[in-house]
Amino acid sequence: MQTYIADIAAHVGQQVTLRGWLHNRRSSGKIHFLIVRDGSGFIQAVVSKAAVGDEAFGRADHLSQETSLSVTGTVRADTRAKGGYELDVHTFEVHGDSHDYPITPKEHGVDYLMDRRHLWIRAERQAAILRVRHEVINAVRDYFNGRGFILCDTPIFTPAACEGTTTLFPVQYFDDTTAYLTQSGQLYNEANAMALGKVYCFGPTFRAEKSKTRRHLTEFWMVEPEMAYAGLDDIIELAEGLLTSVVARVLDTRKAELAVLERDTSKLEAVTGHFPRLRYDEAAKILQDKGLPFQYGTDLGGTDETVLSEQFDKPLCVTHYPSDIKAFYMKPDPERPEQALCVDVLAPEGYGEIIGGGVRLDDYDLLLERIKAHDLPQDAFEWYLDLRRYGTVPHGGFGMGIERCVAWICKLDHVRETIPYPRMLYRLYP
Length: 430
Ligand code: 4AD
Ligand code: MG
Hints:
Blueprint: E1 2-3, E2 15-28, E3 31-37, E4 42-48, H1 49-52, H2 54-60, E5 68-77, E6 85-96, H3 110-115, H4 117-120, H5 124-145, E7 150-151, E8 157-158, E9 170-173, E10 177-181, H6 186-196, E11 198-206, E12 219-228, H7 232-253, H8 255-260, H9 265-269, E13 277-279, H10 280-289, H11 302-309, E14 316-319, E15 332-333, E16 336-340, E17 342-347, E18 352-359, H12 364-373, H13 382-389, E19 395-401, H14 402-410
Parallel strand pairs: 1-2, 4-6, 7-11, 13-14
Antiparallel strand pairs: 2-3, 2-5, 3-4, 5-6, 8-10, 9-10, 11-12, 12-19, 14-17, 15-16, 17-18, 18-19
The chain binds 4-amino-1,4-dioxobutan-2-aminium adenosine-5'-monophosphate and magnesium ion.
4-amino-1,4-dioxobutan-2-aminium adenosine-5'-monophosphate binds at residues 162-163, 184, 186, 207, 209, 216-217, 220, 222, 224, 353-357, 397-401, 403-404, 415.
């Protein structure tokens, strides 16, 4: 019977066939130990001369890393085995040889591995990260779907900037038009929220950011909820609910992967309930008191975010940034108009911003003024201004970058390992 390693527990004492690849092999005279992986997991398959015969035993001695093969044998529970089970092999069949597999168990540099990303994802750690990513994405969808949000996809080809004109990727759009790859679905989300109340979009996002930090990709996946009739507290509560529910899901269903990654899960278990909040002014004071070279009125840098988030064991909500350093669509605080009704959520353990959002400018005149002040092409924004012409309401939402969220949950040094094929300033291959 053909089965997957993930389902092996149901077959103790039975004969099964596993189809996969040889991850590793060691031999001790009369026995070969094959570590087989099939995508769903890893298992040790024990090949003895007595069970398979001389000829097959000899062949098993020449199997090399990443040879694809089927192994048939009896499943045995073994508390000493990683995963709890082993396979006593009766027969095996090779499907495809693999000679000189370039990624060996020795240490390789990151550039070497990134050039071979299409193979590197077979490694146990990399596969564990991609499984966590899958779970994060499912948890995000379930969270919004379970709360009456309608998934409403937004376009990838767009006529104008959403998050500043300096990070746009232009594309030739037929003969005489330039389109830009989307930086955020937010503007369309706002229209969708006026039609459907609570919506979200979830797709690839592009930023021509010439940043070489551990937090930046040029192509990343962002989930963006948007709600009609929402204020800053509603938005922050939604962000808290989302993060606590995503973290709880990964802790519940991806223990094995977190163990492979040697993740200290007690840090994730602390992510419950409400999160601490700081206004930008208070955050600035903390940074200055700590002697950091932070200039009041500027955006928080990576180091500033790291220092702030390290003070708390839960994600930290920083609100009320100066309007000047935020996007054109942010609504000013009526009590302090020089500040925006916005929130950035900084992940603990020094991971920095994983969510950015806030209340949108719902006043027609002020929005038009901002569009002009930011030198944005008014034509391209007429439809967006329509939302303020026809039944404007207070509304808002946020965007969460999946890769930054996964990097934090897995405690990785860099976002490049959280996505199958990262796109970065100097990386477009494979
Ligand atoms: O803070 P950002 O730029 O906000 C927006 O795009 C809003 N329009 C979202 C909204 O309110 N609907 O981006 C939101 C999140 C960041 O907090 C971060 O997690 C992620 O997107 N992000 C990136 N992730 C990887 N690489 C990059 N270059 C990123 N830029 C933003
Ligand atoms: Mg931001």
